[in-house]
Design a protein that fits this description.
By secondary structure, this protein is α/β, with parallel strands linked by helices. It folds into two domains: 172 residues, 3-Layer(aba) Sandwich (Rossmann fold); 226 residues, CoaB-like (Rossmann fold, 3-Layer(aba) Sandwich), CATH 3.40.50. The protein is elongated, with a radius of gyration of 25 Å.
Length: 427
């Protein structure tokens, strides 16, 4: 999930460092947005070291990225801890005079403010009115803890402990409900349960495949594996028992404490064997891996060398098995296998066809229940943190989901949540 962690200028800013570490250990991408005053308590180097992300406070840094808008647009959740009395007042007034308040004004993601201030400031009628207005607008303002404050003072206004804040955030971090580009939840006639996949087994494939040319070289692709890993996490957060089959990655796999079982493969043939075994007893199969369509017909036993006569080697390719189509066919033939099968299509489009049209044709050929379209190319999807997907339903699935493709733009976490939610409704 993509989280913005705002930090305003209070002594409790040091506690936010531990909150950041807890969020990072859970696998979330966190952009820390401190106010200039907060850097008097905790420096930018600390935030950058732990988040592995750039840290700025003003709207005139990294202007080419339009960060004062993009951070809010791309966030799945915005948390401000500590939120000082001044920050609450500025948010209530709709101020946008630094990067944090601009982000809060631009986002459509859930916002949680965690106050920290002296007791007298928390109890002041102006602060109480600001909190009331913010809550009426749909912003969650947590109650502060009571205890030791700055100096010898004690009372309500203390920042809750990082572990308590983190536990409070779990309801947001584990919410599998998809969000539309406008930030609206699913229609009310399709209620979303907290764990719609509890008791279900889900198999997800992720990453790319490598097809050996010789002991040194291979044919591969640009897949990073980020989308497949996000899908596995979304299914796990929805309550499923998740088995993740991983090809080549350009990102870290889920940690051992995330409750996701891992299996590593390299080639398309290895992936096919792993899918056949793992999907035999599963409820849902999500084929997000970027599988090579072809492999070398022969693999050199030793490294292919340049010849003295200058002749170019000839490499003959042969088709790899169509794992998705074979899995659908096996289900039709035997009546066993995944109840819901989700395929992925990476399309560039061409002079005559729109990518969505090509994906619709692929959905009919493959026979899966859902097909997720990624429009790919240089600087599109592969390796990026953000994405845009179109979720197409088969004719049978349209009886539940409707005929129009669902388009989801934003982080790969948000896209994953939408795919998992749509597939869950088919169960």
């Amino acid at each position: 999930m993509r989280i913005v962690l705002g930090v305003s200028g209070g002594i409790a800013a040091y506690k936010a460092v531990h909150l950041l570490r807890l969020l990072r250990e859970q696998g979330h991408q966190v952009d820390v947005v401190p106010t200039a005053a907060s850097l008097e308590f905790v420096g930018a180097a600390t935030w950058e070291a732990i988040s592995s992300r750039p840290v700025t406070t003003g709207v005139f840094s990294r202007v080419d990225e339009v960060r004062h808008v993009r951070l809010g647009q791309q966030a799945d959740l915005v948390v401000v801890a500590p939120a000082t009395a001044d920050l609450l007042a500025r948010v209530r007034a709709g101020r946008a005079d630094d990067l944090l308040t601009s982000t809060l004004l631009a986002t459509q993601a859930p916002v949680i403010l965690v106050p920290a201030m002296h007791t007298e400031m928390w109890g002041n009628p102006a602060t109480a009115e600001n909190v009331e207005v913010l809550r009426a607008r749909g912003i969650e303002v947590m109650e502060p803890a009571s205890g030791r404050l700055t100096g010898t003072d004690s009372g309500p206004g203390r920042l809750p402990e990082p572990e308590d804040i983190h536990r409070h955030l779990q309801a947001f971090l584990a919410d599998p409900a998809p969000m539309s580009p406008a930030g609206a939840s699913e229609p009310a006639d399709h209620p979303v349960h907290d764990e719609p996949l509890r008791g279900r087994r889900v198999v997800v494939t992720a990453g790319g495949t490598r097809e050996a040319l010789d002991p040194v070289r291979f044919l591969g692709n640009r897949s990073s594996g980020r989308q497949g890993i996000a899908l596995a996490r979304a299914a796990r957060q929805a309550g499923a028992d998740v088995h993740l089959i991983l090809g080549t990655l350009e990102t870290e796999p889920p940690a051992s404490d995330e409750g996701i079982s891992l299996e590593h493969i390299e080639s398309a043939q290895q992936l096919g064997a792993a899918v056949a075994e793992a999907s035999a007893e599963c409820d849902m199969l999500i084929m997000a891996a970027a599988v090579a369509d072809f492999r070398p017909l022969t693999v050199g036993e030793s490294k292919i060398k340049k010849t003295d006569d200058g002749q170019d080697p000839t490499i003959t390719l042969t088709r790899n098995p169509d794992i998705l189509a074979e899995t659908v066919a096996a289900r039709s033939r035997t009546g066993k296998g995944p109840t819901v099968i989700v395929g992925f299509a990476a399309e560039t489009g061409d002079a005559e066809h729109d990518p969505v049209d090509l994906a619709g044709q692929k959905l009919q050929r493959k026979g899966c229940d859902l097909l997720v379209l990624n429009q790919v190319g240089t600087d599109l999807v592969f390796g990026r943190e953000d994405t845009e997907v179109h979720i197409l339903a088969s004719q049978q699935s349209q009886q539940v989901l409707g005929a129009e493709p669902l388009t989801v733009a934003g982080s790969k976490t948000r896209a994953a949540q939408a795919v998992v939610a749509q597939a869950s409704r088919l169960l």
